[in-house]
Design goal:
Elements (H helix, E strand, L loop, with lengths): L3 H4 L9 E2 L4 H4 L7 H6 L4 H4 L3 E4 L16 H8 L2 H4 L3 E7 L4 E9 L2 H18 L3 E3 L4 E6 L8 E10 L5 H4 L2 E10 L2 E10 L6 H20 L1
Antiparallel strand pairs: 1-7, 2-3, 3-4, 4-9, 5-6, 6-7, 7-8, 8-9
Helix pairs in contact: 5-7
Length: 221
């Protein structure tokens, strides 16, 4: 089973969805300044009551237990590590719980962002469908759809629990990942929860709000 230690390491896994490119997003070819990127980050109040900001968080998706069970997935996840090294990052957690959202924003040249998007596609291709089952545990990586976001979005969901259970409803550990491109800027958003403390609807709303905040920053630049 995915360990608590692994839960508190950033992770990366499952699903794909591409959407048409809005003209508004394509009109922002220049990378955003560091200040603009930081201004676009989610705030605790964007997620609801009880969320607070953490000053630091672990960034190591390639160390996530289930990822390491697949050599192809492990290699693919390393391709998106630059997103997790973003200087514009925030870590928001429930003050009295085991649920949180982390966000990373990277802006750059068309070539840099294109390379990160290709890496996200490879990650989805090579991690989707991973299943690890033992007598006591079952871990899965599956596609995740959160609807239309930005120019292109890639969604992943990871679940860990007991064999024979519906892991979407009875997981011990749940992690949703959404990578979104808007012009020459990319967002990596991770939503995780432990032991039933996970609201799947928060993934969609957080991703939508993060995209809207980024679009506002782009329009103001």
């Amino acid at each position: 089973m995915i360990t608590v230690r692994a839960l508190f390491a950033a992770s990366f896994l499952c699903g794909v969805f591409l959407v048409p490119v809005p003209a508004a997003a394509e009109s922002f070819p220049k990378p955003l300044s560091p200040d603009r990127l930081k201004a676009a980050l989610l705030l605790p109040e964007d997620l609801g009551a009880g969320f607070v900001r953490y000053t630091s968080w672990k960034r190591a998706p390639h160390r996530y237990d289930i990822v390491t069970r697949s050599k192809a997935c492990t290699k693919a996840v390393k391709g998106v590590l630059p997103l997790y090294r973003a200087k514009a990052a925030t870590w928001l957690r429930k003050e009295d719980g085991w649920e949180g959202v982390s966000e990373y924003i990277v802006s750059g040249t068309r070539g840099k962002i294109s390379a990160l998007e290709r890496a996200a596609k490879v990650m989805v291709r090579d991690c989707n469908g991973v299943t690890v089952t033992t007598d006591a545990t079952k871990d899965t990586i599956r596609k995740l759809s959160v609807g239309r976001l930005g120019d292109a979005s890639y969604g992943l969901k990871l679940r860990s629990g007991f064999p024979g259970r519906n892991l979407d409803k009875e997981s011990m550990v749940a992690i949703d990942i959404v990578i979104t491109r808007v012009g020459n800027t990319m967002i990596a958003l991770e939503h995780d929860g432990h032991v039933g403390q996970f609201d799947p609807a928060l993934t969609r709303s957080a991703a939508q709000t993060a995209t809207s905040r980024l679009l506002e920053a782009l329009k103001a630049s």
